[in-house]
Design a protein that fits this description.
Elements: H1 2-8, E1 29-31, E2 37-39, H2 40-44, E3 51-56, H3 69-81, E4 86-91, H4 103-109, E5 117-119, H5 122-127, H6 131-140, E6 143-146, H7 155-162, E7 167-170, E8 182-185, E9 187-192, E10 197-202, H8 204-217, H9 223-229
Parallel strand pairs: 3-4, 3-6, 4-5, 6-7, 7-8
Antiparallel strand pairs: 1-2, 9-10
């Protein structure tokens, strides 16, 4: 996407894509320092019979909140009302410490009760979670919800697919080019005056449709996603 924009502007350039570490692959469990094995579900704290929707995104900025937390979480709240087994896992900082927004306030406002979501342990998050544990988390998730207002790339989308997890992203900027297996969500233009450019606010009904499609597909690893991510 960035390359196309530079080309349109008449700027000569080279394109060097992001890459991911080969540790991102289907990972059923990891062995901890004490020798104990832990699955991704155990890391997240969810039971095996739950349909786990994960979000891996930085909670940074509020004007706009580029990761579209409000749209994604509102869509999940509506979707989850018809699916009692659906739960949400948030791999982020929840309280707006980096000039972001208060996610607990948002979750409460849209009616997502505390038994329906979990946030990554903040001590571990701030000190750095090993990548193989991240891979186990992606593997244990049923879908990655990553509809943002705009991306220069969007590394978690590729990491999740490398682990066999399909993704839901906005049909805008760099996001659609990264989808080997998943769903594209439509949005409405949103003018970012600070950057003098357009973003997109993902449409809540479109996110709900994508979540429903992911739910109807059910649990299971996507070889299509793995094959697509291999190019990165």
């Amino acid at each position: 996407f960035g390359s196309r924009m530079l080309e349109t502007a008449g700027v000569e350039h080279l394109y060097v894509p992001h890459a991911i570490e080969p540790v991102f692959k289907p990972t059923e469990s990891v062995t901890l320092a004490n020798g104990k094995k832990m699955t991704g579900r155990e890391f997240m704290g969810w039971e095996e019979d739950r349909f786990v929707v994960s979000m891996v995104a930085t909670n940074k900025g509020s004007q706009p909140a580029r990761k579209a937390w409000a749209e994604n979480i509102l869509a999940f709240s509506i979707f989850a009302k018809d699916h009692p087994d659906a739960v949400l896992y948030l791999y982020t900082e929840p309280d707006g410490a980096m000039a972001g927004i208060s996610l607990p306030t948002l979750l409460d406002a849209v009616g997502v009760s505390k038994d329906k979501y979990k946030v990554v342990d903040q001590y571990a998050y701030r000190h750095g979670i090993p990548q193989n544990v991240m891979a186990a988390m992606y593997t244990a998730s049923d879908v990655l919800l990553a509809c943002s207002m705009g991306e220069g790339f969007g590394i978690p989308v590729v990491e999740a697919q490398a682990c066999g997890t399909p993704v839901i992203v906005s049909n805008f900027s760099a996001q659609p080019e990264l989808v080997g297996d998943g769903w594209l969500v439509e949005g409405q233009p949103w003018w970012d005056s600070a950057q003098r450019s357009w973003l997109v606010a993902p449409q809540v009904p479109s996110i709900i449709e994508a979540l429903e499609a992911a739910y109807q597909r059910g649990q299971g690893r996507s070889d299509k996603a793995i094959d697509y991510a291999a190019q990165y």
